[in-house]
Amino acid sequence: MAVSRTVIISCAGMGNRLGLGTTKALVEIDGKPLIVRHLEMLEEERDIRVVVGYQAERVIEVVRKYRNDILFVFNHDYRTTGTGASVALAAKFANEFILSLDGDLLVHPDDMKRILACDHEFIGGGAPETDEPWMLETYEEGGKEFVSAFSRNSGTYEWNGITQMKSQKMISGTGHVFQLIEPYLPVAFMNLRTKEIDTVNDYERAVRWVKNGFCQNGNDTDIVLRGKFM
Predict the structure, then answer these.
(1) Residue 57 pLDDT
(2) Calpha distance 178→13 (Å, rounded)
């Protein structure tokens, strides 16, 4: 049975740290904008909402060239609010679950299949890579792994902004997505291979990753999917 789900992609931010003069959702990796890479993997999802703010017209134009049934939600306060505010704006009249994705993220195609097959709440994370990560503190119980806290100082995994939660838990907030989730911890953990693009170094790593077929250093044997979530 298909999961009753609304997908929300947050694309309102300015991407100042990247310094390319464009919102990060429109950054091209190997000739294809990040937002289009998301949509290609979400082609079976019927309810997709893209939150726009900075360069909204450009984002809408690119998305509509690829798919014309996307709902656009405007975050007019994108300069002063976080992705949590964007998700909350788009969460009105959502389906049972909300899958929240950031527009500046690359997700391994095989892991996106795991995400879309998941029929319960989860929080996504992976190996720490960025300069100033939010970390996930986790614990194991009954052969499964759960997120117990978000932290700047400790944790095994880096929070990558991907989560699936019951929609009524995501309808209010102005900060970051993890701040919407925190009151409901613990939540099941899912280990995901992703690349977040915040800086030029991140961008260069993402390009190499795609050109290598989503493999680290040309192969995937060094990635251990330790998260237990099913």
Answers:
(1) 96
(2) 16
Contacts of 137 (CB under 8 A, 6+ apart): 147, 148, 149, 150, 151, 154, 155, 156
Contacts 24+ apart (CB under 8 A), 69-72: 70/39, 71/47
Cis ω on the peptide bond leading into residue 186 (within 30° of 0)? yes
pLDDT, block means (10 residues), the chain with 230 residues: 92 68 86 95 97 95 96 94 94 97 94 97 93 92 97 94 97 91 97 89 89 70 40
Nearest one of 4, 12, 5, 22 to 54, comparing CA atoms: 12
Between CA 224 and CA 1 the distance in angstroms is 30
48: left (phi over 0), alpha (psi -120 to 50) or beta: beta
